[in-house]
Amino acid sequence: MSNSFEQAFKHMPTPAFIIESSTGNLISYNRNFEVLFENWNATPPDSWLNLSEEANSVEDWQILNHKIQQGNIERCETFIRVGDNLINIQLELQHLEESVLACVYHTDHMDLSAAENTLLKFALTESSAGLWIWETESDLVSCSKSIANLLKCSVEDTPRSTADWHKLVHPDDVQQLDAVVNEHVALNQDYYEAEYRILNGDQEYIWVKERGRTYTKTPGSKIKKVIGFVVDISHQKALEDHLRNQATFDELTGLLTRSSALTHFKKQLGLAKRQYTPLTMAKIHLDANDRLSHLPMESRNIAIQTSARYIYKKIREADVLARVEADKLLLLLPNTSVKDANNLLTNLINPKEDEKAILSEGNSDPTDFCIGIAAFPEDGESIEELALSANQAVEEGQKKCAQIVVN
């Protein structure tokens, strides 16, 4: 340790110590770390094993040290032994060449107002932002005054647990929000965001964007605290709804949207009626085996995008393809009999070797497809009736584990 570093280390205001990477021994600590123990009539220990309540062996330190070196953990929360007492602290950990620098912060009484004014200030860049801290083990949620302002209630009436929070979330949005947050914790991720509707004190639902970030972890790398904020995006959502109603193409897949496809569908149906030509409709379920729902959102979107592009390249120029649900497409096949439609779609679920490689790279698998076919006029004389018949065929196909079903 150089003299300049040693002097800075000894006099830094934050209690700190240095651990030897190879052994887990405390090779140095500063005056404020020493004072922390003096206040309890105790002496700083000589190793991580004797300091951390959660360390049971030298191997525990070696595992933690490896995670620090790999950059997988920069901040952890643990109990340390100070004499006969256990103190809950937060450690900021920095890998040095052959050692680790640990700075000590108390976390028993985290002050939200203080947090807003220091490292969490990023969360308050917008006037409508509300800050919260969630302790995963106890499920305790602490909300700032800005959350109370956002929800138009008192600080005392803000949610105190996940269950309290979910009571305010719109019933149609709860499941998705819960899935995003649970995925964040289960996969030990650093960051997540979600958009949903939440009920305020005026009994009105407002759209908010929630951004959460892992704040502290245990020495075992499990997420202990998550911090985040919610921002009122109601005006943005209103604008998006307006633009979406005017939009022609789906943003993710580039296919026609349901509303814009309806115009094309009705035009082709009108031609079939006047010219007495066959017309079939196919409903394509991209995730009939429920595989995509278990993937992270980004991977799921890539899979849907890959599948949509693959199908679009396989259909003919006169065919009309639209994305009508998150994982469902509707395909109109003008001047096409049921037999010809069946042949075309059979080719669709049996890709060539080069196509399989592209699909696999994009998390897509045609064995997940389930396709229902409906014919005009046998299964319906309107677009709505044909779509319903094709959907019923898909449901029948899922029950029978069949990929193509004719209604």
Automatic annotation (TrEMBL):
CDD domains: GGDEF, PAS
PAC domain ranges (all copies): 192-245
SMART domains (alphabetical): GGDEF
Gene3D superfamilies: 3.30.70.270, PAS domain
InterPro entries in the record: Biofilm_reg_signaling, GGDEF_dom, Nucleotide_cyclase, PAS, PAS-assoc_C, PAS-like_dom_sf, PAS_fold_3, Rev_trsase/Diguanyl_cyclase
Residues in GGDEF domain copies: 277-407
Top-rank taxon: Bacteria
Name this polypeptide is given: Diguanylate cyclase
